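Researcher: Let's do a round of design. I'm pasting the C-alpha cells now; please hold your answer until I've finished.
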C-alpha cells in the first residue's frame, strides 16, 4: 500500500511540476499534410488566437528526436543533442527565455536552415566557455557533415519527460519536418476550439481537424506511464489486504473455537462482550499493529 501512495504522489508531482515552458492555454493541431503557413494565417484572423508556431513534435510527451554533432570533423566523440524542428514563432509560443543571441527570422527560410539554437546544457556538453562565446560558432552534423551556425541560446527547460534529466537540445528550422501547429489562446477553450475549426475548414474544407491542448498531450503521457503502474500496484495491494483479512478472520475463528469453554465460564462470571472480544483479539491485534508500523 505504501508503494501505491508513493507512485500516486509521484504521478501528481509530474502533473503539477513546471516544465520550464508554457503549456497552458496552448493548443496543438496536427497538420496532416496541411501547409503550416496557410493554417497560421487563418488562425491569426481570430482575436482570441495568437502566437501560432509550427513544430516537428511536442516536448515532454514521450517523443524524442536526436542527432549527433561535432565542433570539428576531427572530434572523436560527438555530442548527442535532442532535436526539434521549429519555426520563427516557437520562442514566443512556448515562452522560452533567450539567454544569448537571436532566434529564427520570419520569411527567411533559406538562411534559417543554416542556423541552430541550442540550450545551455548543449553549450556545456559542446565545451563552449559561455553562451556568448558560442554565438557565431559552427557545429557539424555527424551523419552528413552539414554545418550549422549557432545564433542563439535558450535557457534549459524540460524538453523531455520529468523522469529524465535535462539533456543537450537543439532547435532547427526545417519546414519539411513540421507535423503540428501550436497556437495560444485567450478566453475559453471552447471559443478557441470553435475558431480553430473555422480556420481549419477554410484551409481544408471537408477534412476533420485533430486538435487538443498541449498540456493535455503532455499529461496524457504521464497518465499512460504512471497511471497503469498505480492501478496495478493498487490491485496488488487490495489483493494482499484482502488475503490478510481472510487470515485474520481465520485466526479469530480458531482462537474462539479453542477457547470456547473459557469464554463460557467468563461469560457466566459476568464478563462483558467487549471484554471477551479484547481477550480473544489482543494477540493478533498486536501482530497487526507491528505489521502496519513496518508497512
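Researcher: That's everything. Go ahead.
Model: Designed sequence:
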Amino acid at each position: 500500500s505504501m508503494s501505491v501512495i508513493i507512485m500516486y504522489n509521484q504521478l501528481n508531482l509530474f502533473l503539477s511540476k513546471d516544465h520550464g515552458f508554457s503549456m497552458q492555454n496552448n493548443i496543438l493541431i496536427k497538420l496532416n499534410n496541411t501547409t503550416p503557413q496557410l493554417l497560421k494565417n487563418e488562425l491569426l484572423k481570430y482575436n482570441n488566437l495568437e502566437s501560432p508556431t509550427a513544430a516537428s513534435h511536442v516536448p515532454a510527451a514521450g517523443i524524442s528526436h536526436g542527432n549527433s554533432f561535432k565542433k570539428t570533423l576531427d572530434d572523436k566523440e560527438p555530442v548527442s543533442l535532442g532535436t526539434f524542428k521549429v519555426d520563427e514563432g516557437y520562442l514566443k509560443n512556448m515562452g522560452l527565455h533567450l539567454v544569448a543571441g537571436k532566434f529564427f527570422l520570419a520569411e527567411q527560410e533559406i538562411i534559417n536552415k543554416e542556423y541552430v539554437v541550442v540550450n545551455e546544457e548543449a553549450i556545456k556538453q559542446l565545451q563552449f566557455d559561455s553562451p556568448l562565446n558560442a554565438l557565431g560558432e559552427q557545429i557539424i552534423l555527424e551523419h552528413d557533415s552539414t554545418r550549422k551556425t549557432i545564433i542563439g541560446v535558450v535557457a534549459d527547460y524540460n524538453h523531455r519527460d520529468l523522469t529524465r534529466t535535462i539533456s543537450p537540445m537543439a532547435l532547427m528550422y526545417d519546414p519539411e519536418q513540421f507535423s503540428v501547429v501550436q497556437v495560444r489562446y485567450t478566453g475559453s477553450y471552447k471559443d478557441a476550439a470553435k475558431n480553430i475549426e473555422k480556420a481549419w475548414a477554410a484551409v481544408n474544407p471537408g477534412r476533420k481537424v485533430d486538435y487538443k491542448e498541449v498540456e493535455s498531450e503532455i499529461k496524457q503521457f504521464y497518465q499512460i506511464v504512471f497511471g497503469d503502474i498505480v492501478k496495478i500496484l493498487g490491485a496488488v495491494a487490495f489483493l494482499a489486504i484482502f488475503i490478510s483479512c481472510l487470515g485474520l478472520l481465520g485466526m479469530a475463528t480458531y482462537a474462539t473455537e479453542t477457547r470456547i469453554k473459557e469464554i463460557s465460564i467468563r461469560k457466566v462470571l459476568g464478563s462483558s462482550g467487549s471484554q471477551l472480544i479484547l481477550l480473544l483479539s489482543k494477540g493478533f491485534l498486536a501482530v497487526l499493529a507491528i505489521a502496519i508500523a513496518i508497512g
